[in-house]
Amino acid sequence: MPRRAFTLIELLVVIAIIAVLIGVLLPALGSARRTAKSTTCLATSRSIAQGFAAYNADHKDRVIPSYNMTGLDTTEPLDGWGPILDRDGYMQGARTTNKGPFVCPDTLDVEGVATGQTGADPNNTKGWMDWPFVRTGSANVPVTVPERGFERILRVSYWINALNPIGGSTQVEQNYHYTGSVGYGPGSNGLILEQVRTHFFQRPDQLIATADGVYAGRHRDNKIGTPNSRIGYRHPGLGGGSVNASFADGHAANIDALAFPRGLGPANDPAVVWAENTGGNPTLYANPEKALPHP
Predict the structure, then answer these.
(1) Domain assignment of residue 97, given as a range
(2) pLDDT tens-place string over residues 50-88
(3) Measured on CA atoms in the order 228, 230, 234, 238, is the torsion positive or negative?
(4) Letter string b/e over residues 126-159, b meaning 16 or more CB atoms within 10 A of that residue's CB
(5) Which label site among 88, 109, 116, 122 has the fewest CB atoms less than 10 Å from its CB?
(6) Model pTM?
(7) Following DSSP, what letter does each residue of 155-183 receive, concatenated?
(8) CA–CA separation, 243 vs 34, rounded Å?
(9) Structurally, how many domains does the chain consist of?
(10) What are residue 156's DSSP bridge partners?
(11) Where does residue 167 rank: exposed (0-12), middle (13-18), buried (19+ CB within 10 A)?
């Protein structure tokens, strides 16, 4: 009996079918992988929110500083909220780009503020920053601070919603955002920035604590394509991406780029800023009705 075997045409047909299936499956696998990373990032954001809540409870409802300062001195090391949580035993951080509670799995291996600002490259806001650090000219150089208990450098790829007036004397607004650079001052109004107290939060379930990104502050410059933005839209979403954010009440959620609020600033319409931060939307302000001018 003659042996039966595949003909060349049959083999080519099978190969073509396999190629089509691969072409169909690869995008789905890529989408599933992005979804899995976003879900992990969201869980990380929730853990950060719970770490903040534990810190607040242990410190008589005082919110963790974005970092600590002494007056207007920008030459001393700045510790940071991540190292504070790590030092005090709330969360154990690491100096890697793909591990640890302070790093989103979609973090790009980019030093986001290597020159002091994120600039116009959108990849910088999707990168990381190492804490503690000391400002040397326009650079941020990682350092340990053993005398304050900061024995190691940690990688952080989340922005914190903080009043961050480092760099010059400006007006100090107490209890303005989620937190701030405690000890800064005196500002132009003579005040020294103190720790925020949680009872000033009017809508803790809407008040953003952290979001994908690097460093702190610059609330006016947080839309996609804005130079020196600190917000990194790492995940799929409307308007070009989305961020995973933690909130003052301890929960976490995903926010589309179109819905992420801005702060007051020279180029921002106060009426638009009001609309973005009120009406049940996520907000950057501890008390938006008090902080923002009514349209």
Answers:
(1) 34-291
(2) 999 999 999 999 999 999 998 888 788 999 999 999 999
(3) negative
(4) bbbbbbbbebeeeebebbebeeeebeebbbbbbb
(5) 109
(6) 0.86
(7) EE-EEE-EE--TTS-----TT-SSEEEEE
(8) 13
(9) 1
(10) 129
(11) exposed
